[in-house]
Amino acid sequence: MNLRFTKMQGAGNDVVVLDATRTALALTTQQLRQLADRRFGVGCDQILLVEPPQQDDVDFTYRIFNADGGEVEHCGNGARCLVRFLVDKGLTQQRSVRVRTLNKTLELSLQDDGRVSVDMGTPLFDHLDIPFDGGGLMPRHEGLFELWPLSLADSVSCEVAVLSMGNPHAVQRVADVDQAPVALLGPQIEGHARFPKRVNAGFMQVLSRREVRLRVYERGAGETLACGTGACAAVVAGIRLGWLDEAVEVHARGGDLRIEWAGISQGLRAAVRMIGPASTVFEGEIVL
Ligand SMILES: N[C@@H](CCC[C@H](N)C(=O)O)C(=O)O
């Protein structure tokens, strides 16, 4: 099969976008993995499939696949790329669109400065929603949240805040992200038995109440240059833990994101807002 694609990136988190708005597209796990492969395919962290809406209150259906071929619920950087793609391809005349993922409705808006603002919805803290197994252990309470102990290999342990942005996240605070053992601990946390659907593992260095540095070892993709939902999860956790104010600049290795959450002043049901860049890198056709 010959497949047209658009390669995009948002803060260095790269995605391959496929337009299935006119013709349905069903790819096997093997084809998805080939597309994502940096030697045998196009190369990307995630593949985004745009489909016609399946319900009245949205403009498009937005499906997300990790580089390992698994379908997932949410991709923040992908969401920003998606609205840029829809506008550039003339698939919408609007600068704001509503899209439906596996489990969320998102509102994406292209700003006048070229950046994209996304209403990322409400974070979830119930362990059944993440999902996370407390393992009968006691968390350590800090601020208005809690940190859970997690045992890893070789008698190493860490403390993580757990939450869902529609997809699961475990966030830990580190003194210096450049020194954090992301490649060693990331895969262990991602596949830890207490996260039945695996998890995205965030490593956050707090620079001030309004500025953090973040690295994320993503479920199904490994460490990426940025993770939008990971940035939201880290900031929400940091706000609840009392470390951060309600608007924070997140410096990822591939770029900067602004995350806002009024969860202290307006309550836990407040939606998270993410603002950041998105751009097209190249377009082409691949034989699968
Ligand atoms: N890169 C993404 C997250 C993609 C999905 C994630 N790896 C998962 O499995 O949940 C982002 O920008 O949010």
From TrEMBL:
Stored Pfam families: DAP_epimerase (PF01678)
Active site: 75, 227
Pathway: Amino-acid biosynthesis; L-lysine biosynthesis via DAP pathway; DL-2,6-diaminopimelate from LL-2,6-diaminopimelate: step 1/1
Localization per Swiss-Prot or TrEMBL: Cytoplasm
Catalytic activity: (2S,6S)-2,6-diaminopimelate = meso-2,6-diaminopimelate
Binding positions for substrate per the UniProt entry: 13, 46, 66, 76-77, 167, 200, 218-219, 228-229
Annotated site location: Could be important to modulate the pK values of the two catalytic cysteine residues: 169, 218
Keyword terms, alphabetized: Amino-acid biosynthesis, Cytoplasm, Isomerase, Lysine biosynthesis
EC annotation from Swiss-Prot or TrEMBL: 5.1.1.7
Family matches, as NCBIfam families: DapF
Similarity field: Belongs to the diaminopimelate epimerase family.
Subunit annotation: Homodimer.
Biological role stated in the UniProt entry: Catalyzes the stereoinversion of LL-2,6-diaminopimelate (L,L-DAP) to meso-diaminopimelate (meso-DAP), a precursor of L-lysine and an essential component of the bacterial peptidoglycan.
Protein name: Diaminopimelate epimerase
Species this chain originates from: Roseateles rivi
Gene label: dapF
